[in-house]
Amino acid sequence: MKKLQQAADTKANRELQSEAIIRLSGVGKWYGQFQVLRDIDLAVRKGERIVVCGPSGSGKSTMIRCINRLEEHQQGKIVVDGIELNSNIRNIDEIRKEVGMVFQHFNLFPHLTILQNCTLAPIWVRHMRKSDAEKVAMHYLERVKIPEQANKYPGQLSGGQQQRVAIARALCMNPKIMLFDEPTSALDPEMVKEVLDTMVSLAEEGMTMLCVTHEMGFARQVADRVIFMDAGQIVETNSPEQFFNNPRHDRSKLFLKQLLH
Amino acid sequence: MRELTSNELLYIAGAMRWTILLSLVSLACGMLGGLILALARTSHVRVLRLSVVAYFKVMQGTPLLMQIFMAFFLPGVFGFDVNPFLAAAAALSLHASAFLGDIWRGCIEEVPKGQREAARALALPYIVTTLWVIIPQAVRLAVPPSVGFLVQLIKGTSLTALVGFVEITRAAQIVNNATFKPFVIFSFVCACYFIVCWPLSLFSRYLEGRMRIPSH
């Protein structure tokens, strides 16, 4: 009896897990005549960690920016957390509340303190009281290990610290999904690790993550799947193990070879 | 002929209060109008953007003096009697709103694109983004050109003398007609304008320093 119950539980679990929290079907996008996304199909399960890589101009940033509608797709369908992305502004806002984003250039608000950066959205979007928002902000600043910088301004912090603040700022909204758009590409080499460590610990806690990154160590360590894009298409989807050791496509092989040199 | 005495000079200096009052009223109305125009110019509504562009072009492409003439003589065509102060203030306000609006449009657009994207990604509403993210950063860029324009505006009020509004320039003309000492009188007028305008540029530099965002 107990065994049956357990079996049922794991089955329910599996079903829950297999439910896609992000689903892109047949997504296409053009800049004028130039097609940047071609027929993208992608389903991301809850708690899944996906690394997106590919040469520059392959559409990887554009793809994840479509997920929170920083870019508009012109073809196909995007459903996030059960809500379809269309021109309905209320839908867009509902999705953005649940999707945190970390940018290559941090995009912190330079005229606000670290604490104010973290509390602005919780206060105005989640309608939290200032004192509660500050508690939440301090909690996440501790998680990214810079609570002592709370009253400084972004310009007074190093790049790595700023990016960790940007992660904390997104987490303060308690999102279900985190998007990372080349979060370490603008950093000095010695600061990459502190940001990746923060992302690894986030992954370990079961956050659903989509990361555009060329940090292959990170991909090996945390990714459930690696997606390789080229010329606006998803060329290969594979486990990190298979992708790095045994890529299926010539284009992926070439890319990995160039990355190693 | 009358003698030019300190009384005459005091009369001229006293008329400076009208110059200042006119500048303040036009500045206040011009700032309000300019802010609305700048936001409309950077909005997503095409019709709004285009009509504001048309307004900017017309106001920037015609002389201030003609705008003052329009404000003064146009109501007369329809049989309205206009107070010179109101006509001058209206013309200068519309003029200021067009220039400040365009200056501030530039400052709003200078705020890096990533700032607006970060605000959108956090689901911040337009009004919060505008008031808390964009304007505080645009204001820092806007101080020097706005103060520069304010100085232009103060000097521009001298044109209202031509529709008979007795501010400092008109007062000086009146005194000059009676005493005929143009060099002394108009040098004195220049000094009066300078005394008002020069501290403004000092104030601008002080504001810039105060609003600097801390960084290392």
Explained architecture:
The complex is a heterodimer of chains A (261) and B (216). Chain A is of the alpha/beta class. The longest helix of chain A is centred in the N-terminal third of the chain and has 17 residues, at 2-18. Chain A has ten helices and ten strands. Residues 12-17 of chain A have low confidence and may be disordered. Helix content of chain A is 43%, strand content 24%. Chain B is an all-alpha fold and 216 residues long. Chain B has a domain at 17-166: MetI-like fold (Orthogonal Bundle). Helix content of chain B is 80%, strand content 0%. Chain B has helices spanning 6-41, 46-60, 64-77, 84-110, 113-121, 126-156, 168-179, 182-210. In chain B, helix 4 (84-110) packs across helix 6. The model of chain B has no long low-confidence stretch (mean pLDDT 94).
Brief account:
With 261 residues, chain A is an alpha/beta fold. Chain A has helices at residues 2-18, 60-67, 89-98, 114-124, 130-143, 159-171, 189-204, 216-222, 240-245, 250-260; strands spanning 20-31, 34-45, 49-53, 75-80, 83-84, 99-102, 177-181, 208-212, 225-230, 233-238.
